[in-house]
């Protein structure tokens, strides 16, 4: 009769306690369960599992939120760098899209600021049960700032209303 490999790992106290496979699967299961409530669960799972794959124990809600915020901030900063490059490539006096790109860049900068505030606020949340009276306030701050960052991103996208940047600029 073939032995179940998980059962074999768990049979040895050292392997059961220190199994990387065991730890990773618990962290991934937690990520999967939390991502099910998002708008794009598969993207959430793929992205957060990549960043949390080397995490040694089960993640807490706070740690998962911080991972998600840090990933989002990194993507926003990357977008900011790209849009800055686009702005630098447009002729300020003749490109009709220059103003829209600059306004978009302002929105992205605001979003980066909001995400940074979210990260700092989540770092203040205590997981030990003390400071529970502060949790609703801190969670509300994070929710408000995330909403603002999403609004900023939407406004940037809306500024181009489906047209390509620099459209009609080539001669």
From TrEMBL:
Domain of life: Eukaryota
Record bears the keyword Signal: yes
Keywords, comma-separated and alphabetical: Signal
Alphabetical list of Pfam families matching this protein: PMEI (PF04043)
Domain Pectinesterase inhibitor: 26-165
PANTHER family given in the database record: PECTINESTERASE INHIBITOR-LIKE, PLANT INVERTASE_PECTIN METHYLESTERASE INHIBITOR
Designated name of the protein: Pectinesterase inhibitor domain-containing protein
